[in-house]
């Protein structure tokens, strides 16, 4: 118990150093991003420094908004960082090479200069860019399937990939705007891409995230769901790029369409959050015999406001240590319910299920130890009854 690493248990990994594959992936992605920035600085024209600053400026806020949707069952930070850097590095460099090659050797020779650029923007770029961004999601599906517990996870990973890609792409757009129209045009492009529509790439790639999430949590549709998600991302991306040739009316229609899809995705996130905590009341009553949970605890764990109140109470009676322990207890209970959900759907290996279940129960027991060191106090969710966090002393 004393050697238990709560973070490793919650992330479903073996404690210790990060895996070599992750280090290599982050290294390659970072080198690709640096190469793109170097090429942009050398061949992109004036305004490189301005473009970089404006491209990075909204990213911390956008990442914070994405992570705010992931608080109930947070994804491993190292995986999120890799997804972001893949979008900013490998996907951008690959798109730069393939899009340029497509223009030079396919679309322009076939359709001519103007028509070739239009075809590349509306057909070639969406196909290439969404495939490259989707590769990291397909990799998670293949190698880290158990990390994806539902649609929210797919949306979060897709959003991180899209934010990384958009950040690097915006450097070029801002440089071009500054070079062609000075500060006035730069301001207009920044408002459009950095303020009004900063989530376009995350929105497109979220379609892949939904397909991958379905494939990771269901026995059927494991091939068709990611393919349909990829096609959906390409269609949305193509409509966005093609709207520029249709004038203001076309742009307005595409903006409204993307806004409606964004609203649906956010609603899906909140719906799945509530459904996830409801799973606790379905699966965890079977663990009351362990003494780690009681009916009163299940009531607290199954309601988001009650969970929030419990964390505040823990901080009040035991400080940061008790608050951290309460968070670990709640997250472990949530993960345990999701593990049972995977098992019920037949997508969990029995050996993995047993190992994961025992590790999460051990973490809940470890979290309880923090409350043995605080003064006895009736928790707000169990004022008259027993609680697994306060066993008899």
UniProtKB/TrEMBL annotation:
Please provide the Gene Ontology terms (biological process) for this protein.
Answer: proteolysis
Query: InterPro entries from the entry?
Result: PrsW (IPR026898)
Domain of life per record: Bacteria
Keywords in UniProt for this one?
Answer: Hydrolase, Membrane, Metalloprotease, Protease, Transmembrane, Transmembrane helix
Q: Can the keyword Metal-binding be found in this entry's annotation?
A: no
Report the transmembrane regions from the record. Answer: 20-44, 50-69, 81-106, 118-143, 155-175, 195-216, 223-240, 252-271
Any one Gene Ontology molecular-function term assigned to this protein's record:
metallopeptidase activity
Identification of the protein by name: PrsW family intramembrane metalloprotease
């Amino acid at each position: 118990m004393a050697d238990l690493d709560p973070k490793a248990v919650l992330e479903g990994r073996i404690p210790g150093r990060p895996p070599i594959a992750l280090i290599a992936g982050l290294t390659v992605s970072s080198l690709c991003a640096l190469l793109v920035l170097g090429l942009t600085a050398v061949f992109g024209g004036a305004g490189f420094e301005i473009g970089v600053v404006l491209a990075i400026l909204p990213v911390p806020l956008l990442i914070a908004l994405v992570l705010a949707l992931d608080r109930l069952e947070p994804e491993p930070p190292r995986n999120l960082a890799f997804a972001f850097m893949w979008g900013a590095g490998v996907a951008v460099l690959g798109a730069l090479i393939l899009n340029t090659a497509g223009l030079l050797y396919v679309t322009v020779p076939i359709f001519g200069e103007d028509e070739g650029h239009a075809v590349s923007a509306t057909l070639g770029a969406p196909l290439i860019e969404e495939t490259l961004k989707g590769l990291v999601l397909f990799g998670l599906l293949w190698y880290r399937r158990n990390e994806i517990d539902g649609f929210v996870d797919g949306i979060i990973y897709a959003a991180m990939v899209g934010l990384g890609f958009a950040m690097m792409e915006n450097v070029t757009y801002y440089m071009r705007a500054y070079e062609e129209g000075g500060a006035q045009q730069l301001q207009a492009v920044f408002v459009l891409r950095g303020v009004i529509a900063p989530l376009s790439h995350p929105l497109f790639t979220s379609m892949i995230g939904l397909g991958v999430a379905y494939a990771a949590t269901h026995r059927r549709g494991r091939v068709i769901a990611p393919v349909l998600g990829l096609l959906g991302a390409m269609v949305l991306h193509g409509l966005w790029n093609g709207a520029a040739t249709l004038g203001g009316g076309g742009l307005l229609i595409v903006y409204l369409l993307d806004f409606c899809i964004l609203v649906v995705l956010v609603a899906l996130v909140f719906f799945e959050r509530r459904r996830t905590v409801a799973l606790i009341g379905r699966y965890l009553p079977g663990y009351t015999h362990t003494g780690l949970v009681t009916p009163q605890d299940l009531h607290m764990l199954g309601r988001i406001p009650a969970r929030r109140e419990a964390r505040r109470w823990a901080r009040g009676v035991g400080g940061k240590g008790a608050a951290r322990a309460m968070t670990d207890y709640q997250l472990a209970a949530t993960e345990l319910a999701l593990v049972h959900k995977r098992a019920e759907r037949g997508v969990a290996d029995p050996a993995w299920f047993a190992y994961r279940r025992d590790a999460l129960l051990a973490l809940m027991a470890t979290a309880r130890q923090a409350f043995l060191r605080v003064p006895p106090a009736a928790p707000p969710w169990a004022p008259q009854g027993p609680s697994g966090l306060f066993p008899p002393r």
